[in-house]
Amino acid sequence: MKVLMLIDSFTVGGAQRQFTTIAKELHKEYDVTVVVYHPITSHFEEELIAEGVRIKKILKKSRFDIRFVFNLLKYMRKENFDVSISFLDTPNFYNVLARITRSVPKVIVSQRSAYFKATLSLKKRLQESFLYFADYITTNSITQKKRMVDIFPFMEKKIYYLPNAYQFIEKPDLNKSLETNNFIVLSNLNEYKNALKLVQSIEILVNVLNTSDFRIRWYGRFPITEKAKVDFEKAKAIIENNNLKNHIEFKGITKNVTTVIKDSSALIHISDFEGCPNSVCEAMALCKPVILSNICDHPYLVSYDNGFLVNQKDPKDIAKGIFDFINLPNEDRFMMGIKSEKYISDNLNISNSIKTLKNCF
Fold it and tell me: How far apart (Å, rounded) are the C-alpha atoms in residues 17 and 10?
């Protein structure tokens, strides 16, 4: 079977990580070709090349490059793919277009974002409705699937939950890593990730709760939006004015995700909304407790008593979650880490994801 996998680029992100993991696993059994249309590269492309996955770059010269669309559809027809799988909104649009034009006989689109009925724009509603013409619509979030069925009941029979895929590697030395108060965040610094709220919680920990034996390292892309830049400047001012540099550090993007997770005692993730966050699941797969905002799929992720839920809009509650972890005995931290790994093993192992896709083939 010839399988096309379509995504915009190899930029570093959660969707790209899942895309790469699934492509490598499918390649063990099928003839997989990955198509991208932006030249951005990363270690994800290197991983695919190392596994012998064929990569085709059909570059898009502008936002509304009609010639690119024709070239993509022409390539899909020429190669006679049996099925095409796409990740993210714009690749999904092209994939559905390929199905409508009969450039490929079967199309699977992967919806990776979280949205809500009350705030869904007309543009987004129309964009999502277009997915009706795909054969299957997958989402990596239990709660997002429920929301999609509620908003688009006419698509219910096409919507499937495609769990994130994780492969298990050698476990870290839990006794060594969990006995510290070395927290990490693995996320970009967009405003909805709440870096400012986290810094405000650190000020409370140090100045109100008299807790200083901890360090938080934030790994991820620096702010892009104007709102995020403003929030980041406010956060830096709080750090400077309260002498918090020993407690929080913004490190930028890291290629050594596994290493920084192994060296940590717990992961913090306090975003306003999520699908199923890769960083959280990867930390759990490596036996790490987690401190999460009480949104979307997060309650499922701590359902094995492997972490804490906090109100991400309340710095006092965030501080309390971190404070409660700091004061846990090492034995409790150890058991939380074991339970994290158990949740991933039971629910988010790669075999479950591949089985779901095969059922769509």
Answer: 9
